[in-house]
Design brief:
The complex is a heterodimer of chains A (about 240) and B (about 90). By secondary structure, chain A is α/β, with parallel strands linked by helices. Chain A is about 25% helix and about 25% strand. Chain A has a single domain, classed as Rossmann fold. In chain A, the strands form 2 sheets. Chain A has a 9-stranded mixed sheet with strand order 2-1-3-4-11-10-9-6-7, sandwiched between helices. A two-stranded antiparallel sheet of chain A has the order 5-8. Chain B has about 90 residues and is of the alpha+beta class. Chain B has a 4-stranded antiparallel sheet with strand order 2-1-3-4. The chains are: A alpha/beta (about 240), B alpha+beta (about 90).
Chain lengths: ~240, ~90
């Protein structure tokens, strides 16, 4: 479907978001998307194909990362959109918000080393069942940056086992050769989990920043593969 | 009334902050410290004189916002004579 319309992408802007413009830029450059910036106090998402909750420090990360953002008016619309099967991507702080909102399982703890970690990491694609990984091979290793102090994802054992059974682990931290082990995981997350999805697979959250790895000038384009995968998935669905 | 909501990480949930504080205490010479867990304490003023209503409000606020039940436990305490009742010394 070469005549496909440009996707509409809503980027939510919370007070304290600071990766919103990067996300919008990635959506424009990689997806040729029609991007709408949606404020935290708005409710109209503008009938998007994709909602991105960007990185940053929404509401100053007061109380817990994502805890206040969860109660923004816009999150009611995001939850309704997700409930209808709409594609939602939470990046870093966006992932924290999705967990706090209960749209994704688990919660974030302070990084194991107590330090804010800002460096490139390697991610292994563990599941192809989301729109963002459908066009990527399972086992592929992607390089992109992390920048967070509270990305130590955890979940109750029973919840985690259900997630494993339902193929909800989307990305794991690995070393450059794709193996798990010392040096791969930057924050101590449970079982090296870097990104997960909901049961349906339409809501995805990850701590690393794909939108910061969409341009060779910025050191790599592996992040663009998530957005390209979304475009491929959307076209396939439109063609069906 | 004044309601105190005490929020602590659940037992078994790794507390890197508490561990760092314990390490610092050891360095200060408090060798008898065997464990430290860091938590949060909220003092909430509620416009009511009914202890039951105040406690109920505190429970709801803790469940909805002040604590994340995935990783944290909470305890709601009412202030009596200037100190939270039941607060551990």
């Amino acid at each position: 479907m070469s005549a496909a319309t440009a996707p509409r992408v809503a980027v939510v802007v919370f007070p304290g978001s600071n990766c919103d413009e990067d996300a919008a830029r990635a959506a424009r450059n990689v997806l040729q998307a029609d991007v709408k910036m949606v404020r935290h106090d708005e409710r109209a998402l503008g009938d998007p194909d994709l909602v991105i909750l960007p990185g940053g420090f929404a509401y100053g990360d007061y109380l817990r990362s994502g805890a206040m953002a969860r109660f923004s008016p816009v999150m009611e619309s995001v939850a309704a959109f997700a409930g209808q099967g709409g594609a939602v991507l939470g990046i870093c702080n966006g992932f924290q918000i999705l967990c706090e909102a209960g749209l994704l399982p688990g919660a974030m703890l302070r990084n194991e080393g107590l330090r804010f970690v800002c460096r490139d990491v390697f991610l292994r694609v563990e599941s192809k069942r989301t729109p963002f990984t459908l066009a990527i091979n399972k086992g592929d290793v992607l390089r992109m940056p992390v920048a967070h102090g509270e990305g130590n994802w955890t979940a109750e054992r029973r919840v985690y086992e259900e997630m494993l059974a339902r193929d909800q682990i989307v990305f794991r931290y690995v070393r450059s050769d794709g193996s798990r082990g010392e040096g791969g995981n930057p924050n101590g997350s449970l079982d090296d989990v870097a990104g997960i999805c909901n049961v349906r697979g339409n809501v995805v959250g990850l701590m690393p920043h794909p939108e910061r790895a969409c341009d060779e000038l910025l050191g790599g384009t592996d992040g663009a593969r998530l957005f390209k995968s979304f475009a491929t998935t959307r076209m396939a669905m439109q063609g069906a | 009334m004044t309601v105190f909501v005490k929020v602590m990480l659940k037992p078994g949930v790794l507390d890197p902050q508490g561990k760092a504080i314990a390490d610092a205490l050891h360095r200060l010479g408090y060798g008898s410290v065997s464990d430290v867990r860091a938590g949060k304490l909220f003092r909430v003023e509620v416009d009511t004189d009914d202890p039951k209503a105040a406690k109920e409000a505190g429970e709801q606020m803790a469940g909805k916002l002040l604590a994340n039940p995935v990783i944290e436990d909470y305890e709601v305490l009412l202030e009596a004579a200037g100190a939270p009742t039941g607060a551990a010394r």
